[in-house]
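Hello,

Following up on my earlier ticket. Below are the two sequence lines again, exactly as submitted.
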Amino acid sequence: MNASSHLRRRRNGRGTAAVGGAVLVVLIFLALAAPLLSPEEPGRIAGDPAAPPDPRFWLGTNALGQDLFSHLLYGARTSLLVGFLAACLSTGLSALVGISAGMWQQGQGMLMALVDLFLALPQVPLIVLLVVFWGPGFWPLVGTLALIGWAAFARVVRAQVSVTLRREYVEAARALGATEGRVLRAIVLTEVAPLLFTKFLLTVRWAVLMEATLGLLGLADPGRVSWGLVLHQAFGYPLLFLTDAWIWWVVPPAMGIVLVTVALMAVGQDVDLWLNPATRPPA
Amino acid sequence: MRRLVRYVGLVCTVVLLNFLVPRLLPGSPAAGGGGDEAAVLPSAAYQALVATYHLDLPLQAQPTRYLAGLPRGDLGWSLTSHRPVARIVVERLPWTLLLVGGAVVLAAALGGALGWAAAWHGRRRAVRLLTAATVGVGALPEFLIAMALIVAFSSRLQLFPAGGATTPFAANQGLLRALLDVAWHAALPGLTLVLGFTPAFALLMRNALVPVLGERYLVTARAKGLTSRRVVWHALRNALPPVATLLGLRLGTAVAGAAVVERVFAYPGMGWLLYEAVSTRDYPLMQGVFLIASLAVLTVNLFLDLIAARLDPRVEGQA
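Thanks for your patience. The regenerated structure is below:
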């Protein structure tokens, strides 16, 4: 009974991860193929302003008369790219700082003070301040999100590294003459990799949500259509809730964000099970 | 004592950061967006910027002037409303404390109760459904919840206002009416925030309680014949430190306001102020919000550090 329920649970986990992965693949495909799939150029004023959906404009038009379906596809492109790049950079920073602090005893205090500083500041105002003074745009956005997102996980990485270094097989490896570089590559990186992957997935999710949040505050890159920019324009439209416009204007990008979030959660859980047997449910 | 030194250091860094960020990052507010071709600022705005950042002084004299102004509450001069930043912040702070602070406290109570139910009665179907619903709501972006509430309760049913914090002139109809009016306006944004904050509290409470439930001291407590209420308290006492920490952190960030929710509901708190400052590129105002919010978070963190040993005596040994 116990063994079978354990197996069933694992298979269920696989199932959700497969669905999550499939959703992600479809979203990424739609984002990549946006120029081919979009019926209109995102910047072109193609129809009447704020028109409801019709056979030509599947999701209606915005206040300028631009096609919202094209904006949804192009928005996925920008939002997912922001999420991906910010997550890559900030995961790299987490790894760099966390591993350095774990392996380099003298520098530990200084690096952890830096982490504390980033953790102690209120996130949204800090991001807003940096983006504004850096100048709203694609790279400032990515850079700021990367800069703000790394601190919490650097601490987790450091803890993992220092636990690992105290294990006996590390001592054995060192006794056999392994250099610091070898310990780093062969042991520390393997131990930390699953953590970093989890952090990457979490950060993609956070960055996509943050892009939308900054968009709502008017800080999306005005030169590129993103989900955040679509939301900003939607909430700036005075009749949004007096008509049904929110149904085709706000709900699709919002659903996009929810899909990304849920899909990443599903994938992350299963990857966690696979990479880290300790979190598997007991048989 | 060492902690105190650390916090003084952090406060200094925040102030320094606030001084340096506009000076280090590329792009200058005084150039109106950067580059030679940028729009020329109105001279009044330019004067306000010069006064705020002491640009008329040489670079080495600027930090002393900036620092000298801070203790006197001089956060600079707002470009758009032509008033001191500090005064604007003081006007907005109560609304945010009411809305976000109130929502955090409610969410902590609600989330705590849900988490306790999930840990204690985890096998009941209703509790399982409720837990799943909590996690589900936690995955939704705030603005989506806000929008759903506006559409349902404001546009369709017309039960609650879609924005604002008060009805004009409601204060003239007596204190009770005025208070009811404030609560009526805070209902939807407050509910959005409560829904947003609750899942974290519920999960934390559940995760803190579950490992405790198998502990022998609870069996002992039951065996001693304690009432079930006392047994529950034994377990809760252990879940208290993490939940109290989360509550404190959320209260600290509450001072920064809830930018998205306040923007969607046009609620005149710190978050809406930040949004206004961003959309009008009112740099001194933005920095004022950032400084106040950072100081609030640091103060709360210090307070949490100080009471940590009270909540969890085991901390004492580690410090």
